[in-house]
Predict the 3D structure of the following.
Amino acid sequence: MVQFWHCWNRVVFPGIDEENNTPSSPAKNLRRNDASRSFSVFLLSLGLISCVVVYTFLSIILRPDGNYWDADFDPSISIEETENGQCCQGIENLELWGAAVKWGSEFKFNSSKECCAACKAMCTGNDGPCLCDTWVFCGNKKACGSRFGECWLKKQKDTLSPDRQEAGRTVMWTSGLVFGKGEGIVGLETEHGTLHIKLYPDCAPHSVYYVLELLTLHHCAGCQFHRAESRGLSWDIEGNHIKNTPFGPPFALVQGTLEAQGTAFKPMPTEVCPSIRRGSVAWVGSGPEFFISLANHPEWKNKYTVFGSVLPEDLKIAEKIAGLPTKSDVWNNINVTVLKTPVPLSLRRLKSNSWS
C-alpha cells in the first residue's frame, strides 16, 4: 500500500548550552596573550552560535506545512508519505529475481527498511520507470551467516509479474516491490467502466502479491460488487465530512468480493492501516471482502489494511455503482444497502505497465 521512504522527517536542532559554550571572563592574573587567546575563542564561539541561530530560523521559515492531510490527493503519492514513514514493508522467506542494479555482496545494511529505502532512492524521478523496483535483503543472522545485511537491488522485466526465485520457510531472504509514478496500476473492469487502481506494495506487500497472482489467472469468476452506499448528506463531493451530520448510514462506499472461484483464499495478514480516504481500496477484515471508500473516514483509522487507491478520474464510476438500485438489509445489527443486482468485475492489467 505505501505511503514509502519519502516521508517528512521533522528535524530537531539541539539546544545550545550557553553556559558551556560561552567562555568565562579571563582572570586578572593571566598574561595578556592568554587574555587575547580567550577573547578570540569568545569571538569564534559567538560566530558559531550566530550561524546556528540563523540556520534554525531559516529552517523554521522554510519547513513544509505540517497540515499534510489537507493536501490535494495525488494517487502517485504512496501512503507512507502521509503516515509517518510506516511503509517500507516486504515479505519474509521470499526471494525475488531480476537483473541486479546493486550487488548485495558490495551493498549492505542493518535492516530491510534501509535496503528498501535505498531502492526507493532510485525511484524519485517523474520521467519514467524506476531504476530499481525490487529489493532483496538477507536479515536472518543465523541463516545468512557472512551474507547478513546483503541488499540486492533489482529491476524486473514486468513489474506486474515479478520473477520469483523461491519461497518458503527455508528461504533466508526478505523481498519487496517498489512501484514508481505511473507503475503498479491494475484495472477493475465492470459494465459501468474500468476502475484503475494504484497498488501499494510498500505498505501492503502480501495483499498486493495476492492481487498480482489473481492477474495471472486471467479470470476473476465470482468477483463482484454487492453493497453500495452513497455519500448521502454526510459528505461533500470531495469526500469531506459535513459538520453536524452522522458518519452513516449510508457509509459512502462500494463493497465486493475479490476471490476467484475455484481458488483457495488465504486470509490476508493485517498490514499498514492508515486513515481511510476517498478512493482508498481496503480489505474488510482479512478479506476476500474489500471496499472502495467514497469519502474520508478518519474515524476508521487503524482498522483496515489499505492496499491501493482508485485514480481520481475513475471515482465517478464508483459513484455510479453506488447510485444503482439497492435494497435494505441488516448486517450484525447495522443497517446497510445492498445492490439488487450485483455488479460482476474482472481484474485486468493495462496494455502498458505505465499510466500517464
Notes: Helices lie at 18-21, 32-62, 112-120, 141-144, 205-217, 315-322. The longest strand covers residues 334-344. The two ends are 20 Å apart (CA to CA). The mean pLDDT is 79.
